[in-house]
Amino acid sequence: MEHDLVLAGHGVRLVPVAREHAPALLAMIDAGLWAGMVTPPPASVDVVAASIEAARGAPGRYAFAVLDDATGEVRGQTSFYDVVPAQERCEIGHTFYGRAWWGGRTNPACKLLLLTQAFEIWGMHRVALRADARNLRSIGAITRLGAVPEGVLRGHRIAADGTRGDTAYFSILRDEWPAVRAGLEARLA
């Protein structure tokens, strides 16, 4: 959906993703980075731009480009999606970062900004995160956030190569948020 939400702090800035971000996003994507996604790795700027337009048009989705706050360099993208204010829930996902930012401060900084928005501004009760069950790197990152594993949805999605994949689900509830926030702040200190 079209939005004007900008979140900034801890060296990153999340801005509404736009076509202008497509070349930088394409440059960081490779088959390994894209493993577990339901679409094949994009092969052109136009394909990335089309996915950006689809994200911007999806109801209940706030799609962001992740930028270096000082330089404006694109580091990746992330989203809120399935935002249901009446049920006080949303999900965070559609996330990837260029390999240069794996294992560093980018993911904890983004998650701190997104979770603060969800729990402290929007008043959410539940924020869910998920990953392809084969994507151990993403599952590790979600676990390090302090999200609670909820289980695996078997045969939940069809991967780009036509195989069926399982989806590992995690969540953070409102009363768990203070401990998760403290952990993220400690990682960023």
TrEMBL record:
- Residues annotated as domain N-acetyltransferase: 13-147
Please give the PANTHER family that the UniProt record associates with this protein. Answer: BLL6696 PROTEIN, N-ACETYLTRANSFERASE DOMAIN-CONTAINING PROTEIN
- Indicate what this protein is called per its UniProt record: N-acetyltransferase domain-containing protein
Domain of life according to the entry: Bacteria
Annotated GO MF terms = acyltransferase activity, transferring groups other than amino-acyl groups
Q: Which SUPFAM superfamilies match?
A: Acyl-CoA N-acyltransferases (Nat)
Pfam family name, one:
Acetyltransf_3
